Amino acid sequence: KAQQTVQKTIKTTAHRGASSLAPENTLAAFMKAAELGCDWIEIDVQLSLDKVPMVIHDRTVDRCSNGSGAVAELALSSLKQLDAGQWFGQAFTEERIPTLAETLCLAKKNNLKVNIELKLYPQDDVQVLCERISEVITESQCIDTQLLFSSFNAEALKRMQNLQPQIRRGQLWEKIPTDALANLKEIDAYSVHCDYRFLTERQAQQLKQSDYQLYCYTPNQPALVEQHWGWGVDMMITDKPQAYRAILAYAS
Length: 252
Ligand code: G3P
Ligand code: MG
What we know:
Elements: H1 2-9, E1 12-15, H2 27-36, E2 40-47, E3 53-55, H3 76-79, H4 100-109, E4 113-118, H5 126-140, E5 147-151, H6 154-163, E6 168-173, H7 180-186, E7 191-195, H8 201-209, E8 213-217, H9 226-230, E9 235-238, H10 241-251
Parallel strand pairs: 1-2, 1-9, 2-4, 4-5, 5-6, 6-7, 7-8, 8-9
Antiparallel strand pairs: 2-3
Helix pairs in contact: 1-10, 4-5, 5-6
Bound molecules: SN-glycerol-3-phosphate and magnesium ion (MG).
């Protein structure tokens, strides 16, 4: 019985890579996740000015690089000149904002599965984002089951269902809405990803009864989600996958 508990406890996705140990959404953070033995990384993808899928969370480059301005207003060549690591620590000055193509290449080599969050800010074009991402995925020759799309934007997930129907889809919600099941059916979802702080036991039960995978973001201390495992939550999307590995080491 104790062994079963441990098995559940270690199911984690490295949120933006192992983002407590290396600058988020960089190849260094993804390599760190691989070194920790994570199965999954989560990445945020949006388009550059010249419509290249880039891996970066914020609308602007200001917080996570030495540059400034909106990602959507900077071309790939400009984005690639930025230092995306120094803000986190001197050891990471070589880091650049990765493209989706570079990230998928690293993931493939290191046997990492990738949760691709389709990141849409106001003014972004859903169709172009989905088409460009779809093209990169096809070129990457990744195995479909190694990838998962997630988004707060249901239209983006719907478009991906048409473009890459074989790749599974997860609906992101901060708080799960009352009409969740109808929405999930609409996009033939595989999973629901919600903020752990707002999930209730009843919502978890309903989703599990309907056979959806249930993921929580972003509990950075295992103790915050002790009860969630009992509710049937399948995976934690966390900045600190190493904290969950420590639990395994202790329990075994
Ligand atoms: O996948 C969960 C999480 O990434 C969603 O929120 O803002 O960190 O992209 P955010
Ligand atoms: Mg994200």
